[in-house]
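[Meeting: bench + compute handoff]

Bench side (C.D.) handed over the final construct sequence. Compute side (W.E.) agreed to return the predicted structure before the next meeting so the bench team could plan truncations. Sequence as handed over:
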Amino acid sequence: MRLGFEGLSEGQGALRLSHLNKVNSPVPQDPYQTLGVSRSASTAEIRKAFHKLAKANHPDVNPGNKAAEERFKRASAAFDILGDPEKKARFDRGEIDGDGREAPKGFTGGGPFSGRPGRKAQGAGGPFQGADFEDILSEIMGGRAGAGFGARGPMKGEDLRLRLEIELEEAIKGGPKRISLPTGQTLDLTLPAGAKDEQVLRLRGKGAPGRQGGPAGDALIELVVKPHPVFRREPGSADLTMDLPVSVPDAVLGARVDAPTPEGFVALTIPPRSNSGQMLRLKGKGAFAADGRRGDLLARLVIMLPDAPDEALVRFASDWRDKRPYAPKRKP
């Protein structure tokens, strides 16, 4: 890879070679301090530290931010040394300084590309030619770094990742929904019938705008089904369960009562002599399974006494207990 500035303005040349450029400062940097790692840091720790700094300060992420660009250059120069085992060993032995320059031997002056004694220029390949650096840039820029840092061709915009809380009824029935973006704008979408918790909806072209004529990114909406005050869903099951309060007379004599479902109330028959804990099934009133099958709604009967004291009921129960005692059988 030849280093040339032909056809580039001064600003373009600096940007194209920002990952090749050494930091020209009177005092060489300490690459360990720049990356925020100890001298005993492993290769993986060094790589992770550079990845974090490069991702936060990459010029494509911070257009026009000179301070971020400078931090990116310094981090890149530090990784050029510590990310290369041979250069790292030479730095640790004091043979090169923190900017990758040969340790002075009676001569100072020149620049990293001058070829003068005392500051050896980089080899013909230049720094950062290893796959490790390009892999990291590719991870940061979503695979766009292969053409070389600073490429300004059309680029797809970033994807937006958002979480959207929905009611259980909305997850079952589906329908239109509006979500607020971090920018204050709103985005309209349609929930599919049978939406599931942690399901991700992709809205193509609804993310951040592209650059240089590139396409917009996508909006990735993760659905979060909120807990319901009445209906419960067991993990891995399409059935819903609920507790259904029943009065003592209805439990003894049987009745038709209104039972709630995700679509509204329906009439449910309570058999005579029903007990608490008995389960009644409402077919096709549950949630949706992964294969699209609709589950059932299971109503667990809970026999309830009146909220207010009832003397007639107390006298009846007292007479019943004296004349017709019985001991309920406990189910295993």
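W.E. noted at the follow-up: Residues 1-25, 106-131, 143-151 have pLDDT under 50 and may be disordered. C.D. will use this when planning the next construct.
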